[in-house]
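Page 47, continued from p. 46.
Same chain as before, 605 aa.
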Amino acid sequence: MTSGHDLDGVRSELRRLGYLDRGFERFLLQDALKPRQPARALLGLIAKVGLLAGLALAAALSLALAVANGSLTASPLDLVALFVHLFPPLALATGLAFLALCGVILVVIRFAHVRRIETLSLVVALAAGAGVLALALRLGREVLSEGRLEQVAVLVLATPPVVYLLIKLVYQGLLSLAIRFTEEAPLGRLFSRRWLGLVIVLAIALLTLPAVVLARRVPAAAPATLPTGPGERVVLVGIDGVLPEEIDYLLTLGELPEMSRLARGGRVFSYRRRREPPASFWTAVATGVPGPDHGVTSLDSFLPWGCRTPLAKNGPLRAWWSRVEVPLGLAEYRPVLANRRRAFAVWELASRGGDPALAVNWWATYPAEPIPGLVVAHGAYQLLREKAGGAVEPQAAQAEVAALAGAVGAAPGNDRDPRLAAALPPATAAGVLDRAVLPDRFYREVFARHLAAGTAAAPRAAALYLPGLDIAAVGWPGGDVAFADLVRSELAATDRLLAGALDGVGTVVLVLDPGRRREEGEGRILLWRRTGCAGAPAVTSPEAVAAALLRALGLPQSAELPPPPGCRWEPPPVIVAGYGEPHRGAPQGPESEEYLRSLRSLGYL
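Result:
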């Protein structure tokens, strides 16, 4: 234990330097200068640093979440509720992090004689502050891209002082620890020099500003009109859960004759899949706008107790809401609905002139938005069985589509599948059939019937998403051979659909993604045009799919979208800054809970 004489000398020197004249520094130093056990002094110091750092971080993160999710103006009292939710975990986390930094200081003091303990403490504190700032900038892109300019400006102005206060807090805490264990007073006051604090704040601001400018998304103004040129009908089909070697092998064998024909007469592209939720990836394919700019960055949102606005943008805090607060009943779990999508999909742009369009089961389409034509929302097979509203637009078509869903489920032989029965236990086979196989059959049937409508009612743009293979692959216990048979049969069914439904279609894009079977893996895009699009295999991006379809439709080229992939394209009628953003209202009624149950039944949540 440190002697009282030594503490008196250190206390006298600290008072001469002015450390004990200020409330903040005295708050951290007073326990270190009392003759008590070192472990007790260390625990008291950790508790104080955790308390103060938790206060600062909880206030900053509450403000960031409010900016990202639009609750700063809609429900400003959410700031108080968010602070109450975030303060306890952040105080605990920062206390543990400070404990780790204390370990670094103690190791250095133990094995090396350090004369300038204030310099050592400052270096470690600056390193900790740089780490916090880097983490905040890396994870804050989606937060910064959402808020209004004035709200983001408040957040940007608040960041340098908060990080500076954290650095100063850690510095004073580590200095208190060093004084306690070396029985020495610092040689001078580093933070008493105004220029040092100013330099730190300016450095933080200079590091923050470029990151904010790059992350800040300013949507392009919607054009007054969208002039169109001569175009053609287009079809987009997305199949989730197919590995590139599987489709390459089946095309080589000729087991998919229609897809093989399209590949021979068209062009095959590959792309590299980023690690992102399926909702974000497939929304980028349909809109040409990458995530998080299109707004659909997750499958879910959270409504903490006391808040009025759900948090769809959470960054690193998602794990806290989902794994701690939801199980404890402190937050409500909600799905992300179609009103989160901030970019127009291909079928929406194609139908703006009154031409019919068709969208079946694509992500971010629930509740279904009314357009000329037909929209069957994502997860509609399960939703229709629950008699949920919003599954089909126009509503006049819901009875017909629901009857078709019932007919698929009740058709003779559809209560079992020989392939699944041979590979899986009865209960598991029934689950895969109900969650994956039958829904895809239903979506293919709806698509085929409405794509082959009469000439006047034929959709100008049609999109179909088939997730069955991706859903079936999660937790598949039947072995690779049995799953390969399932892949072959499901792709063959889609091949037969294409063979009978492409009359009068000028451009076809088939996207085959590995999905959750191989995250960050390679995928395939098959592009075929009636006017010809031959060429060697090449690399493109998923966002280029929408650009290709919009060019084929004769719509203007948006500066927000990449150019269409290599092919012979007619020049666009005009180049616009962007297509604008759809104006969607907040869904009313029980749609959230019904869609949530649908996502859970599909295995996405």
